[in-house]
Amino acid sequence: MSQQTPLRPPPAARTIGDRLDRMPVTPTHRMLTAVVGVGLLFDTFENNLSGTISKVLQGDFAFNGTTLKLVLASAFIGQFFGSLVLGRVADRFGRRRAFLINLALYSGFSLLGAFAPNAAWLIVTRFLAGVGIGAEQALSDCYLADVLPAGQRGRYTAWAYTLAFCGVPAVGFAALWLVPLSPLGIDGWRWLFVLGAAGSAVVWGLRRRLIESPRWLATQGRHQEAEKLVAMMEAELPAHILAETRAETRAETRPAAATVKERPSDDAAPPLPRRTGPGVVFQARFRRRTAMLWLFSTLSVVGYYGFGALAPQILAAKGYGVVTGLGFTAVSFIGYPIGSLVSVPIMDRMERKRLLALSALAMALAGFGFAYAGSVAVVMFFGIAYTLVSNVFSTVSHVYLAEQYPTDIRAAATGLAYSLSKLSAGALPFVLLPVLEQHGAGPMFAVIAGCMALLVVTVLVLGGRTTGVSVDHD
């Protein structure tokens, strides 16, 4: 379905965006960031679940190589469809409604995965849970880009992902604890699915407290609702700060309004229509950033999920047992939240695309160190180093992707780019596992390093500057 919207945001929508961009951070901003972050925590828990316990599942169900690849890939293929469909829902029906739908999907089907009697059941439930998981990060990134002030957007999104990526070591240590056990006579790995589903159900209740995006409401012509929400946040500010903020907004928007009035087409003629279907990303003004984002999304998961999903397999190839490998993986995963935390103070001080390039190169170097590590201490050092720099990379990526498109197409267009990353992630086991099995960890990380090098060139050549820039740009 496509709908007609103005070529430029209407003045009321621009005013809402200006007020949000210039507003200092309020208690509401902090609450929204925390609720989004907790939801993302269970998303990362789910995302890393199959990879973390892959060796255990392989033993319990006697998987052959093809079945293992399907189990690892099924959730990512589901995420491909979820990113496409629920991004459109968010732009058409609102961010808040899409949030509730995606959480219900992945909570319910993750719970069903706990009762899997065979590989086929597990593959199907992981696929359907993936439909919900696939939209979570794109929706979160777009929502935070919508509601956070321009100057604090990177920093607070980094805080959300610091909380989120506590879910990665959480699944690692939970697996280390539960896999050797059978509480109530039920296999420990099944309890991991129950934990993820239960946590997601709690978050669904918290998500009901989220406000709708005022920017989105304004683009839909629901100006009174948008005004009410922005006024609510402004009421949380001290009177003198609010007065200064409003004065800055008036001073900034007055010249812009005068410029617009000089153009007869804005006042004398109806607004020019544009499509908001998938094809809009190929229009001339979006073509370069779309090419960059699609290449970036396809390549980035090779480095990021290539390690997270396959770390237990890499350690098994080095000769470590299942439980020992889980322990090393859990320790390595500590780097994920630390990496997001490290990105907090630098996110809004360094241009995003440069930070992406530096962190991608650091991932390639740490990957080679992990591949050729010959002792326990060195394995864990490079494992933590890899996850740390990869989460600086990941956190910057989430902010950067959400900054590329205007509000009325942001969720659908960003979801389209995310869907390519999920499709790429779904192909990873079929590409990287054969390299690992036939040639070893070193050549596998050489493939990853090559992809990261191509990604760096893509971002530096095609990527634009976004740090501190309003997301209302066209």
Can you walk through the features of this model?
This protein has about 475 residues and is an all-alpha fold. It is built from 22 helices and 2 strands. Helix 1 runs antiparallel to helix 13, helix 2 runs antiparallel to helix 7 and helix 8 packs antiparallel against helix 18. It is globular and about 65 Å long. The two termini are about 20 Å apart.
CATH class type: Mainly Alpha
Low-pLDDT stretches are 1-8, 253-275
Give the proportion of residues in helices: over 70%
What topology, given as strand order, has the largest sheet? 1-2
Largest sheet: 2 strands, antiparallel
The CATH homologous superfamily is termed MFS general substrate transporter like domains
pLDDT average, as an integer?
A: 81
N-to-C series of helices and strands: EHHHHHHHHHHHHHHEHHHHHHHH
How far the N terminus sits from the C terminus, by CA atoms, comes to 22 Å
- Which percent band covers the strand fraction? under 5%
Second CATH tier, the architecture: Up-down Bundle
Strands, total number: 2
